[in-house]
Amino acid sequence: MRETVKSVNVKVLRSKPWIEEKSTFVTYQVPIEGKTSVLNVLTYITENVDPTLGFYCSCRIGKCLGCSMVVNGEVKLACTTLVETDITVEPLRKSKVIKDLVVVKKGKSRPQSA
Ligand code: FES
Q: What is the full per-residue pLDDT of the chain (114 aa) written as tens digits?
C-alpha cells in the first residue's frame, strides 16, 4: 500500500554574507512521503524549486557530520533527521556562514547544542 503524500513547510534561513549582512527566512512547501529526511527535503528544494539554496552533505549516512545544522532549534544531522511536520532550518549558530546552511566548521564533533 502506497503512503499518503503530504506537504510540509520548510523554513530556511538564507544568507549571502558577501552581499548583505542580513539573513532572511524563506519558506518552501515540500511534498513528503514515507520516511523523508531533512537532507531529502533540502535536495528536493534545490532540484525542483530553488537551485541556489546552499547546504553541504557528503556521506548521507550520519558518519561525516558534514550536514550538521539547526533543525527546530536543535543541532541535528540533516541526513538522519526525519521530517514529519513543518520545520525551521538554520546554519550552525557558532560557526561562520559561507552561504545559507554552509558554514566553516572547526573540527568534527557530534551535534550537541545550537
Ligand atoms: S551527510 Fe554525512 S553525516 Fe550527514
A: 556 689 999 999 999 999 988 999 999 999 999 999 999 999 999 999 999 999 999 999 999 999 999 999 999 999 999 999 999 999 999 899 999 999 998 765 555 455
- Structural domain contains residue 22: yes
Is 110 part of any domain? no
Structural domain boundaries, residue 26:
6-103
Helix (H) or strand (E) holding 75: strand 74-77
Protein residues whose CB sits closer than 6 Å to any atom of ligand 1: 57-60, 62-67, 77-79
Tell me how many domains the chain contains: 1
CA distance 50 to 47: 7
C-alpha of 67 from chain center: 8
Residue to mutate (ligand 1; options 43, 71, 77, 103; most atoms within 8 A of CB): 77
Query: Is 67 inside any structural domain?
Result: yes
